[in-house]
Amino acid sequence: MATRDGSDEAYVVGLCNQMLGESALTQHRFDWLLGDPGAGGRRVRLPVDAYWPGHQLVVEYRELQHDQPTPHFDKPDRLTVSGVHRGEQRALYDVRRDTDIPAHGLRLVIIRPSDLDADSRGRLRRTEESDLAALQNILAHDSDEDRVTDTFRTWLLACGWTLVDPTDQRTDLEAVRGERRLICEAKGRTSEKGIDADIAYGQLLRRMTRQNPHTRYALVVPSSSAKATARVPAHIRQLLRIDVYEVTDDNRVCRLTD
What we know:
By secondary structure, the chain is of the alpha/beta class. Helix content is 34%, strand content 23%. A hairpin with a 5-residue loop joins strand 9 (242-247) and strand 10. Helix 6 (193-206) packs across helix 7.
């Protein structure tokens, strides 16, 4: 299925096709990615902008209306089947894509106008050479931090947590389960294990704006960094409500208890 010819989305997907050597399935719908029930209880399948089966990759091109109020697109005077206006529904469905796509073993890459050569209104100038260079970096194979984050995300979902939009946009993952909230900072393999662990602890400290005792903080690291995170004694981590989780090389998650 072709995407909207001439649109910025079609331009971005076309550049990705060039780099990946595969033509995307555009506006593809998975059986498990569903919208909210309509009046008759029917749930429509939500489309994704582009899906490359050979790469197990989904790309979402999110224009400005995905990140800021836009009355023309939001239609605030008209409610959707979700009981909210279109802008709020779009945000809900974006979170659903962010959660469900990685949970089904696919890589999700989100591209915004600011990632490419765009004007102040978010319109792409279509400077192909620089846009291709930017996309090459964006589509580069997952870093180890991506692996750690994706593995921990899947583990949270399997344990009954619900992912939510982070209170702080720099937070890697934020999840709730009942009254409990978990704010997570993830790190990948690094040659500076001690320094990176100290930086991660500092990042969590800056996010401790909640006095709710049900809120805890998670430092999520690969096995190679587990020893470095343990330099902060367990009783101090407990006082700060910080839990350390290790993601092993074979993608298992275990909580550091010493």
